[in-house]
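Running log. JK asked me to keep both predictions on one page so they can be read side by side. First protein, sequence followed by its tokens:
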Amino acid sequence: MRFALAFLLLLVAQGISAAPVRIKDLAEFDGVRGNDLVGYGLVVGLNGTGDGIRNAPFTEEIMSNLLERMGVNVTGEQFRPKNVAAVLVTAALPPFARAGSRIDVTVSAIGDAKSLLGGTLVMTPLNAADGQIYAVAQGAIVAGGAEAEGDGAKVVQGVPTAGFIPLGARVEREVEFELASLSTIRIALRTPDFTTAERIEAAVNGEFGRPVAVMVDPGTVTLDIGSTGLRSTAHALGRIENLLVEPERRARVVVDQRSGTIVMGEDVRISRVAVSQGGLTLRIEEAPVAVQPNPFSEGETILVPRTRAAIEEEAGTGLAEVAAGSSLSEVVAGLNALGVSTRDMIDILKSIHAAGALHADFIVQ
């Protein structure tokens, strides 16, 4: 186990070692952003896996409204179909999406429907945060799950109550944004860092041979469009977005407690520290004994409790020294010298971090 852990840590370190990255992969251009859309609709054509109307009355209400808009009077009628389901439809409107273009949508059941397999989403308006309709979704749902059920068993694979419609919505309204009228634009770093921002400034200025970019703070670099000498803002952004910059990363240790995964960046350092690891095992066994009365005598059978309790202490690793690491390989070698499992390694890293000897951001998921 410890050799596998060392291999994983070294492999990750080699994969995330500093390398030139495009500016478009490190930052966003201020104002060039998408918008989230949401809508409430109805899925029809299900094979008996839709909402139970008694448990989801809102399904009956939206179905009645839909039929009435189509000229079908259903006032006072009782619906009991099993092939419809109420859903929430979500999508992301990309920047500069034009009217008539299509976007992907995600459909999720909100009632007690068992599956959306084979269903079709009926025309559903999608609203943004301002309450305006920006797209309309409709189409056949692609669900990635499966479900089978018998009298005594049931099996579900994936999530059949959620699905996807590729290019399932058509954009009806555009988001107004006059990119060409901007005289300056801000480059916003996804991970703010002084060193990275300074390198972006230097790369942009070096590309144009004059000072056109200025670092404002660790998360922002301002670009003067007029100083670039190009015809438009779009031409300027197209020229700088593919410039290569070597990003600077903070040292981090990421721990996933559910899977027992540990990931370390190559800049992680550990000060000289001594670690002792062991554990206690408490065992309790219940073995009650039945005591019966003598033959032909009056009485009743009773259970007499019998409990066995024991505490076992594991030998542990003793007090082991982890030397100060000047590189990731030395840190891994020092931790593996403790000879513990990955789960115990997580607890040891927590303790080292609490002692102030782990010089990195410690993130537990």
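And the second, directly underneath as requested:
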Amino acid sequence: MVAYLQHVEVEKRLAARTVTLYTEDMRKLQRAATEAKQDVLQLQAFHIRKQVALMHSQGRSARGIALILSGWRGFYHWAVLQGLVPNNPVLDIKAPKAARPLPKALSADDAVQLAAFRRSSSELADAGNGTAPGWLELRDAAMTELLYSSGLRIAELLGLDTQASAQAEQQGRGWIDMLAGEAHVIGKGQKRRSVPVGAPALAALQAWLQVRDVAARWPDQPALFISSRGQRMSAQSAWLRLRQRSQQAGLPVPVHPHMLRHSFASHVLQSSSDLRAVQELLGHANIATTQVYTRLDFQHLAKVYDAAHPRAHLPQVSVPERKDGEPER
């Protein structure tokens, strides 16, 4: 093991922090060998699997186990090259699958509260000025409404142009059809899809378009959502603006764009129970990706049940202890 650690430090020139992690992995491997009453170079695949099961039962995360296995795999790969062992016992051993976390979604009330949030009329009075708070308000309101109305990814939202064009199509950009009430977007894998846009979102978009370039400063800028400098908005800027808007709207948690996509999917599924339709609306290539929202839906139903059903919380019933000699019933 000492020779291997010298190899990764001197020959591979790994960072000091990485060498420290490798050293800790080797200590774990040595402990596993000691528990198995074997030399490290004599450990077999079943010894490794036993250690994986033990670490998993002790609560170590799947990612943590995977990192440890990676360190052990690297050691045995080196040992094979040195002729110290005939094969790598860790080669085909994988860590347990990590539980897929539920996507974070807003409640329907919170999502509507955020989408409907508007600043005071006094702040909107100067909406025609490209750098005024009212101008930003109309833009941010349109972005928020559209994200929740159509479940767009942030890249799809910021890739929208004010109108369709051959150039936009070649460069993979989408556009909004105001008359049809549809957003035509280019998703992952350059897959095109059309999604409906709700009436409130269309109204917010119309209000934004009326002031987007009222001073005709950027006549050649096709982007639907632009910064105060007339450039297509960046994803980072959109994240910060939405986070700020959610705080202004009084929501208990900061909101990011993908949270509105999750909220869209969860709320449509709760109302329709049509998983295939939600898959099409989100542009998922595999329905397994969409099925995560069924877990969210069940979570919502469970909360409704606990809150509303009169017998959801029954009192604890004490079971009398059986006296010695009394037969079981």
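Observation for JK regarding the second prediction: Residues 324-329 have pLDDT under 50 and may be disordered.
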